[in-house]
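The instructor's notes for this session suggest beginning with a concrete chain rather than abstract definitions. Hand out the sequence below and ask the class to guess, before any prediction is shown, which regions might be ordered.
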Amino acid sequence: MYHPKTIEWDARMKEMFDRIDTILEERHGGAWKLRRNRPALGETANPEADGLFNLGVFFDPGFGSRLGRGYLVEIDLAAGEEIPPAAREAIELEVLELLRRFLPEHFPERRLEVDREGRLYKIHGDLSLGEL
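After discussion, reveal the predicted structure:
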C-alpha cells in the first residue's frame, strides 16, 4: 500500500513522461519500423505500450552515485531495426531538453535537475514528499 503523496508523485511523473512520449512520437514515430510484437501508436490505452517510444523512470537509491538518489530515465526505442548511434544520441538529447523544460511545470514546488549518470539520465534534487 502506498501513501497518497507517493501516488500523486508517480502520477505526475507518468503524466510528464506520457507528454514527452507524445512529442517524440510526433517527431520520429515513422522513422523506423516497429518490432514485430510492438503495437502501433494508439493501439493500447498506455503510451508506454505502443508506438516507437517507451519512456520511464525507476528509483535509484544512489549508493555509489556522484548524484545521489534519484530517478534513472530509461529511453527504449521499440524499433525492429538498428537505430544509428547519431540518431539515438539526438533523441536522447531531445529527451534531456524536454525533461529540463517540463520538470518545473510538473513539479513547480521542487528543485529538480537532470544530469547524465553513466549511460542514462538521472532526475535528482528535492525528492522529498514533505510531511507524511
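Then share the key points. The chain has a mean pLDDT of 92. The first strand starts at residue 53 and ends at 60.
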